[in-house]
Amino acid sequence: MAKNPKLVVDAFVPDALKIGNIVLRPITMGTILVLEKLDCPLTDDNAIAAAKKNKGKFAANLSNDDVARLVFVLTHSAQDSLALLQVSRDVFDRAVYDYLDRIEVRDMPVLGGLITGHFQNAFSTVIGGADAVQKKTESATPGPT
Fold first, then answer.
1. Is 145 within a domain?
2. What is the 3-state secondary structure (H, E, C) of the chain?
3. What pTM did the predictor assign?
4. pLDDT in tens, 23-42
5. Which residue range(s) make up the domain with 128?
6. Is 48 part of any domain?
7. Phi, psi dihedrals of residue 122, rounded to the nearest 5°
8. CA angle 54, 48, 139 (to 5 degrees)
9. Domains in the chain, number
């Protein structure tokens, strides 16, 4: 075990996924499902359609509550977030606000951009590659026999 876990984290986690003492987890299908349950603007069909038109760039308007919930979900496992949501939305929100006490005010302005960039990177192959995948699927489908 390393004597200084911060050095280990710094060595393996790209700076683009860290701000202050916050380390964002990779965006997984579980993450997306939890965010959909929270009606997150970044998982809204309109935001994804707009990102497709805008070369993969997300431009959703995020409220402070949206950012707070995103930070929590992106720093916790989908299972942990879902367990809190299954109890109640109020219990989930209390956990979010408790977690936010770790975030310094000086780090707040950067969080929205960090999260949006994290989504753009995660979805870049999905959004940018959707048409190519469709064309490959269509060309691989045998014609009428």
1. no
2. CCCCHHHHHHHHCCHHHEECCEECCCCCHHHHHHHHHCCCHHHCHHHHHHHHHCCCCCCCCCCHHHHHHHHHHHHCCHHHHHHHHHHCHHHHHHHHHHHHCCCCHHHHHHHHHHHHHHHHHHHHHHHHHHHHHHHHHHHHCCCCC
3. 0.67
4. 888 888 999 899 999 988 87
5. 5-140
6. yes
7. -65, -35
8. 85
9. 1
